[in-house]
Amino acid sequence: MKIEEHMAKAERFVQSLKKLDPQKDFEAVMWGRMHICSNWMNAALHAKGVISENDDVAHTWYLFEYGDHDFLEANIDEETRRALTELAVFESLRTTHVRGPATYGSEVCELSERAYNHLKEFTENAIAAMSPGA
C-alpha cells in the first residue's frame, strides 16, 4: 500500500479506538493499536526506502523472511531497529493479553502507551524526512 493509504487506515483505527473504554475494552484497544502501529511501521519503512510500497509487512518477524535480507541489513538503521522492537511489544501483548488470559493493569498500559507514542513519532519523523517527490 502507499504511505498515504497506511496513514489513512491507521487514522481510521485511531478514531475507532476513541469510542472504546481503554480499561474495559483493553483487548480491542491493544488489537487496534497493533494494527495502527503496523500501518505506521509500513509507512515509515516505505518512507525510509527500506521496502517498496508493493511489499508490506504484517509483523516484525516477516522482515526476517524478506527476500533480500542483505538489503534489509544494510538499510535498517538503529532508529528503525528500536521502532521494530517497540512494534514487537504489541505482538507480544496480543499473545498474552488479547488471545491469552493475562490481566490488564497500569504496567501493561504504560508499556503499550510508550510503544504507541514511540512508533507514532518514528513514523512522523520518517515521513517528514522524505525527499520531495519520493
Task: Provide an overview of this structure.
By secondary structure, the protein is an all-alpha fold. Helix content is 66%, strand content 0%. It has a single domain (3-128), classed as Four Helix Bundle (Hemerythrin (Met), subunit A).
Indicate the radius of gyration in whole angstroms. Answer: 15 Å
Low confidence ranges: none
Enter the CATH topology name: Four Helix Bundle (Hemerythrin (Met), subunit A)
**Total discrete domains:** 1
Total number of beta strands: 0
Q: What is the overall number of helices?
A: 5
How far do the termini sit from each other? 15 Å
- SSE series: HHHHH
Q: Round the mean pLDDT to the nearest integer and report it.
A: 85
- State the share of residues found in helices, binned by percent: 55-70%
Most strands sheet:
none
Approximately how much beta-strand content do the residues carry? under 5%
> Looking at the structure, what is the overall shape?
globular
